[in-house]
Amino acid sequence: MIVDGKAIAASIVDALIKERGTLPSDLKLGVLMGAEDAASASFVRIKERVAQKLSVEVVRELLPDNCTTEDALAALERLDEQCAGIIIQMPLPSNINAADILAALPAHKDVDAIAGVQTAVLAPVAGAVSEVLVRMGVSASGKKAVVVGAGKLVGAPVAELLRDLWAHVTVITKDEGSLDELKDADIVVLGAGEPGLVKPDMLKEKVVLIDAGTSEDAGRLAGDADPACAEVASVFTPVPGGIGPIAVAMIFKNLFALAKHQ
């Protein structure tokens, strides 16, 4: 089954619209981002479209390429003063020490759950993966799960989620493990950012294949899985239109949850 991520995201947003009246009318989401990063600007515009549906104001703090870490920390403090949730839109300008910025991000406003501090919310991609598993009736307990990639936004939080669901989890990176692990995996989650990395003959029949790896290929958005993998998978999330829209919706689900705790 090919997962319709847009439909799932729409149902999440519809539920949030009904919940919106229980939260402050001036709810704001802050975004700290590079001023000259076109990809970041595109991702933020997608979030702004959802924010508009939910009557959430998005406040951008734009950091020029010559920005210092001190300048970025000051911008983060300004967002902290007025916003219920904050996104650190990576990558930040190269002059900035990103680790210092993440360390300064208040855990109770970290909608991406990216700062490495235990929070009340799941990382949006992990939340999106959870939504897909639940809605598709997939139990991870006792299953072999392979996660490709160990990044803070996809691989690491998804691996943690699957362990919490009692799956037997293997994480593969460029430096550790082998894609041969995919051959007998029941659940595969991709987050490498390498277009077409995984081919159908690398997977077993009826695998649950969740593609959360996005990158550009010849000017088009592409996933880590060859689209033909849908033919061998029992559950398949395409790129675009799969995990991406759900993860954006989860950002706002997290924002609402954090706002209620403040």
Give a structural overview.
The chain is α/β, with parallel strands linked by helices and 262 residues long. It has helices at residues 5-19, 38-53, 69-82, 98-104, 124-135, 155-164, 243-261, and strands spanning 28-34, 57-63, 85-88, 144-148, 168-172, 187-190, 207-211, 215-217, 220-222, 233-237. Helices cover 35% and strands 18% of the residues. Strands 5-4-6-7-10 form a five-stranded parallel β-sheet, with helices on one face. A three-stranded parallel β-sheet has the order 2-1-3, sandwiched between helices. A two-stranded antiparallel sheet has the order 8-9. Helix 5 (124-135) crosses helix 6. The radius of gyration is 18 Å and the shape is globular. The mean pLDDT is 95.
- DSSP E strands, number: 10
Biggest sheet, in brief? 5 strands, parallel
How large is the radius of gyration? 18 Å
Strand portion: 15-25%
How many alpha or pi helices? Answer: 7
The shape, in one word, is globular
Task: Please mark out the parts with pLDDT under 50 across 5 or more consecutive residues, or reply none.
Answer: none
Helix content class: 25-40%
In terms of structural class, how would the helical and strand content be classed?
Answer: alpha/beta
Give me the side-by-side strand order of the main sheet. 5-4-6-7-10
Q: What is the residue-mean pLDDT, rounded to a whole number?
A: 95
Distance between the termini: 40 Å
The helix/strand series, from N terminus to C terminus, equals HEHEHEHHEHEEEEEEH
